[in-house]
Write a structure and sequence with these properties.
By secondary structure, the protein is α+β, with helices and mostly antiparallel strands. The chain has one domain (about 5-100): Rossmann fold, CATH 3.40.50.980. The protein is about 40% helix and about 15% strand. It is built from four helices and four strands. It has helices spanning about 5-10, 15-25, 45-60, 80-90; strands at about 30-35, 40-45, 70-75, 95-100. The strands form two sheets. It has a two-stranded antiparallel sheet. A two-stranded parallel ribbon has the order 3-4. The longest helix is centred in the middle third of the chain and has 17 residues, at about 45-60. It is globular. The mean pLDDT is about 80.
């Protein structure tokens, strides 16, 4: 089994796998993104993304009181913040509701 396969197999849950990746590969490059407004390239490490994910998870559970199993929707273009929000859903065991901004809007009819 490869080192990565062993790493994944040893993680009992997705949150554990994410935390091990964030801190186990802390200094390795995760992504390079353009800074909004300036267009400057930002190099994000696993540690950077892990810290952003943990901070968002703490804010949503602490300030908003979101609990495990809470459906959470993300409406965003493809960007690093979308990944951070997606990872955050896994960390707090919430349910990610995916929506595509390219789909046509249709007014939903609610039951009476």
């Amino acid at each position: 089994m490869s080192e990565l396969g062993s790493f994944i197999k040893q993680a009992p849950t997705v949150p554990v796998l994410l935390r091990r990746a964030f801190w186990g590969f802390a200094e390795q490059a995760f992504a390079t993104v353009r800074e909004p407004g300036t267009g400057r390239l930002l190099h994000m490490s696993y540690r950077d993304v892990g810290a952003r994910t943990e901070a968002l998870a703490a804010a949503l559970t602490g300030k908003l009181g979101l609990a495990a199993g809470t459906p959470i929707g993300i409406l965003s273009r493809n960007r690093l913040e979308w990944l951070v929000a997606d990872f955050r859903c896994a960390l707090i065991h919430s349910i990610l509701v995916i929506s595509c901004h390219r789909l046509p809007f249709r007014r939903a009819s609610l039951p009476a």
